[in-house]
Prior knowledge:
By secondary structure, this protein is α/β, with parallel strands linked by helices. It folds into 3 domains: 4-33; 37-124, Ubiquitin-like (UB roll) (Roll); 155-276, Cytidine Deaminase, domain 2 (3-Layer(aba) Sandwich), CATH 3.40.140.10. The chain is built from 8 helices and 12 strands. A hairpin with a 5-residue loop joins strand 7 (179-184) and strand 8 (190-196). It starts with 10 loop residues before the first strand and ends with a strand. The relative contact order is 0.15.
Amino acid sequence: xxxxxxxxxxxxxxxxxxxxxxxxxxxxxxxxxxxxxxxxxxxxxxxxxxxxxxxxxxxxxxxxxxxxxxxxxxxxxxxxxxxxxxxxxxxxxxxxxxxxxxxxxxxxxxxxxxxxxxxxxxxxxxxxxxxxxxxxxxxxxxxxxxxxxxxxxxxxxxxxxxxxxxxxxxxxxxxxxxxxxxxxxxxxxxxxxxxxxxxxxxxxxxxxxxxxxxxxxxxxxxxxxxxxxxxxxxxxxxxxxxxxxxxxxxxxxxxxxxxxxxxxxxxxxxxxxxxxxx
Length: 278
């Protein structure tokens, strides 16, 4: 494997020209933009060599967590079904790509296979390949962690979460171009916070961090910095989360899935209000 210096960082420097309001002089300066690169996940198990299963555009960092969380959210395996997660050592890979391919080795064949549409496309797209009731039926049929069954969070706690999340959003503070997700316990303590250019990837990283640490994924709350799309609700339900708190709006399909899954769903959340949908 080549030198670790080739590993892509979460952000990079670029030269920009800033054009302020009329009458003020333009100026050249350095800025930071969030890194966006593809991650290919290869899946293997005894008797089956690793093969390409999924590709997503992501922010480099916590790649093993992303792969582990994705596999659990997709219902491919349970937490202790993952044997190893490693960067691919395929000699045919270009040096700049060796940190963009992760191999996930399972203890046994996957409990289900991803849909063909997920083999080469990111689930971050709102066009998931199936629609309406078919999407919900498929999501409900995905093996899920038993849901956290504690009491509903107080409205005061829910409203406070986005502001409490902001100090943890270090990449957002530097670039303004990244989403965040956090797992929060019933007392409002932040257990895991992850950032990524894709909100769905950030959720995968949060769950994956718990899986790789041997900690439960089913907790009181998951808070996200963006909207509550169908894919985020599906991942929260699969991980066994009790409540999903979003800064932005939910979609109709997300609301339907939350209701069917027994997941409490909050949108448009800030210090002044929150709207509960399920």
